[in-house]
Amino acid sequence: MDIEKKVWEVLCSKEDIQKRNIELGEQISKDYKDKNLYVVSLLRGSFVFAADLVREVSVPLKIDFMTTSSYGHGEESTGNVKVVADIKEDLTGYDVLVVDDITDSGITMKFVMEHLAKKNANSVKSCVLLDKPSRRKVDIVADYIGFTIEDKFVVGYGLNFGDYYRNYPYVFCVTDEDRK
Ligand code: IMP
Ligand code: MG
User: Fold this and answer.
1) Which helix (H) or strand (E) holds 38?
2) Rounded CA separation 175/152 (Å)
3) pLDDT for the residue numbered 70
4) If you measure from the C-alpha of residue 105 to the centroid of ligand 1, how many angstroms do you get, rounded to a whole number?
5) 154 C-alpha to center of ligand 1: Å?
6) Dist CA 50 CA 91 (whole Å)
7) What is the pLDDT of residues 140-156, one digit of tens each?
C-alpha cells in the first residue's frame, strides 16, 4: 500500500487538536490549582497527546508512564488487562490524572484507575483525547474528553493500527482495505 496516495477521512485536524488541547490544559490548570497533580500517561497510545497536553498545563506536575496489555492484535479488548510496566512512585498525597488516547470499551481506563487508587492517591481522574461512548462495556465516563466520536476505528496522533500511523499529526479513519 502506498500510504502517500491515500485520501483519508480526517476526524480531528492538527488545528482542531491544538485548539482543544489549549482548552483542556486551561481547565485542568484551574481544577488542579491547589492540588498536587501527577499525570500518568498510558503507553504507547497516549504519548503524543500527553506530551502536547502537559505543555498546556500551567500548574506544577509530575509525569510518569504506564504500559498495560489487553488487546491481542490491536482492535478488540480482551477484557483481561495486565500491567506490563508500572509507575515507579507511591502516590500518597498526589492527585492523579490518567491520560489515554481513547476510551472504547472503558475496560482499560477502569482497570488503571482502580490500580492507581490502590497506591494511596488523593484522587484519581481521567483524561482522554477521544471517546467512543457507543462501544462502552463498563460504566465509566472520562473526566476530561477531547472529542466524542462515533464507532469508527481511528488512527494517528498516537493511535495505531498494527503499530503504524502513530506519527500522523491528525486523527483519521482507516478503511477496511487498509486494515486487511
Ligand atoms: P478499551 O479498554 O476498550 O477502552 O480500550 C482502550 C484502548 O484500545 C486504547 O487505549 C487504544 O489503545 C485502543 N483502541 C480502542 N479503539 C481504538 C481505535 O479506534 N483506534 C486505535 N486504538 C484503539
Ligand atoms: Mg491504549
Assistant:
1) strand 37-43
2) 9
3) 78
4) 8
5) 9
6) 19
7) 999 999 999 999 999 99
Place of cell 504506564: 66
Spacing, Cα 69 to ligand 1 middle (Å): 11
Among residues 104, 143, 151, 163, which one is catalytic?
104
Residue 84 has pLDDT above 80, yes or no: yes
Read off the pLDDT of residues 1-31 as tens digits, 9 standing for 90 and up: 455 556 679 999 999 999 999 999 999 999 9
Atom nearest to 104 CA in ligand 1: 4
Residues with CB under 6 A from ligand 1: 45, 71, 77, 100-109, 153-155, 159
Distance CA 42, CA 50 (A): 9
Please tell me the residue having the least CA distance from ligand 1 atom 5: 104
Q: What 3-state class would DSSP assign to 58?
A: coil
Give me the mean pLDDT over the 65-85 stretch.
79
Q: All domains of the chain, ordered by start, with CATH?
A: 14-149 (3.40.50.2020)
Looking at the chain, how many residues does it have?
A: 180
